[in-house]
Design a protein that fits this description.
A: 160 residues, mainly alpha, 2 domains, 44% helix, 0% strand, B: 293 residues, alpha/beta, Glutathione S-transferase Yfyf (Class Pi), Chain A, domain 2, four-stranded parallel β-sheet, 8 strands
């Protein structure tokens, strides 16, 4: 049996999808041009935002991970909806269900284990030393690990 | 100017440390006292941590609480760090119930968010002290035509970021012109650099975006690019080199982090600002800078 719509518990977010009239202002007008429109398959008739809002199961739509949270779509929407809130809710649901890309789960593991978004390589340390900068340390990450345990971020997720 | 808790951000600390070294030196010469906070961590990055907003808020509140302990506002070098820290700071200051939940989580590490400080981007400090900045210009960057890319996360949402008009940003242009260079206008000025697309999307799409943006800059007459965000810097530098190679087009638009341009105008050499770490170089631009010197 198919499970209930994953975003049904979020009525405001569902409202975003219902309010969208496909006017395409959010994505296709140059001053608020959505960067994801450069992906294959999107144009002024079929926009990235509409692609996200119209997916039968938004959380399993790989396109949600392309949003950079620039807020341009919500600033542009003449109906004052927030496609960003919809996309972020879909991402949260996807993470809970183990549907997030490995790259993203890797980034989260990287942050909570080192305190940095990027791996600290020998070349990083060498260059910092050349420039007279202090070496990077990872002791503070212990506090992030404790936070992740407290908030549930560290809980195991289903495999994609 | 004054003292700040210095928050360079992961990208600069790990991937672009020459910008950290230069920022310390240049901001110091302008009278900005940067205080190191050893236990600062990733802000954390908003796009990835949007999968768990509460964790995002708690980790950001932890960084804010460290600066609060010192009684210092935070100064950051990164649009993304500004977005996270300023957004969470404002949310928690304005929502007692949310602040209570965040502090409950923070109590596990004996920390508390109290809402005592502000978060600033270096570009805000500079535009507020424009006359002082101009007084430090020893060799104006005349002859340099620069396309300014402000970046997304310092502009939006404007009611929180409050930096510039997201549809028509001009502050970075003002900062560039204060150095004697010419800021050129171009039609895709507000288009994102494509960092997230290059991370989570297809390389082809990211290169199409870069090609459009760089062509637009060239049509505007630009010979170089100015940015105030390390991700944008990386995208226009490494991304441009990669796109040019794959598309067989030479854009030859070197990108400068604004503090590099400021350093050049203050009399530093290209080598001193870390130009050797740049992927995209242009001999004509280098010559123009040498002539300016």
């Amino acid at each position: 049996m198919r499970s209930p719509h994953p975003l049904r518990a979020r009525p405001i977010v569902i409202g975003v999808a219902e309010a969208c009239l496909r006017c395409v202002v959010c994505c296709a007008v140059e001053t608020h041009f959505c960067h994801v429109q450069f992906e294959e398959g999107f144009d002024e008739r079929y926009t990235y935002v509409y692609h996200c809002l119209s997916a039968p199961d938004p959380a399993s739509n790989p396109g949600i991970w392309l949003c950079t949270a620039c807020h341009k779509c919500e600033e542009a929407c003449p109906y004052e909806t927030s496609p960003l809130r919809f996309i972020e809710a879909a991402k949260a649901e996807a993470y809970k269900r183990g549907l997030a890309p490995r790259l993203l789960t890797g980034i989260i593991a990287q942050i909570t284990s080192t305190g940095y978004l990027f791996p600290i390589t020998p070349s990083t340390m060498r260059r910092r030393a050349e420039l007279g900068l202090k070496p990077l340390t990872t002791e503070a990450a212990e506090e992030l690990r404790q936070i992740a345990l407290k908030t549930g971020l560290a809980e195991p997720r289903g495999e994609p | 100017m004054r003292r700040y808790a210095f928050f360079p951000g992961c990208f600069i600390r790990v991937r672009l440390p020459h910008l950290e070294a230069l920022s310390r030196r240049i901001l110091g010469e302008l009278g900005v006292k940067l205080v190191d906070v050893e236990n600062f961590t990733c802000c954390p990055e908003a796009v990835s941590l949007s999968v768990d907003k509460m964790s995002w808020r708690v980790m950001a509140a932890r960084n804010l609480s460290l600066a609060e302990e010192l009684g210092l506002d935070i100064l950051t070098l990164c649009n993304g760090c500004l977005y996270t820290l300023r957004t969470v700071n404002q949310e928690l200051k304005g929502d007692e119930e949310l602040r209570g939940r965040v502090n409950d989580a923070l109590s596990i590490i004996d920390r508390e968010f109290r809402g005592l400080i502000e978060v600033r981007h270096f570009a805000e400090i500079l535009i507020e002290n424009l006359e002082k900045l101009k007084a430090h210009v020893e060799r104006p960057l005349e002859g340099l035509r620069i396309a300014c890319h402000t970046g997304c996360h310092i502009l939006s949402p404007p009611e929180i970021m409050g930096f510039d008009d997201p549809y028509d940003p001009v502050i970075l242009d003002e900062l560039v012109e204060a150095l004697g260079a010419e800021a050129v206008d171009y039609d895709l000025k507000t288009l994102c650099c494509g960092w997230t697309l290059s991370t989570y999307g297809s390389r082809e799409a990211s290169e199409r975006l870069l090609a459009s943006k760089l062509n637009s800059m060239r049509r505007g007459g630009a010979t170089a690019i100015a940015v105030i965000c390390p991700q944008c810097f990386h995208q226009f530098d490494v991304g441009q080199a990669s796109a040019a190679r794959r598309l067989g087009v030479e854009y030859r638009l070197p990108v400068f982090y604004y503090l590099e341009l400021l350093a050049l105008a203050m009399g530093f050499s290209l080598d001193e600002v870390g130009y050797r770490y740049h992927r995209v170089r242009n001999r004509e631009v280098e010559r123009a800078l040498e002539v300016a010197g």
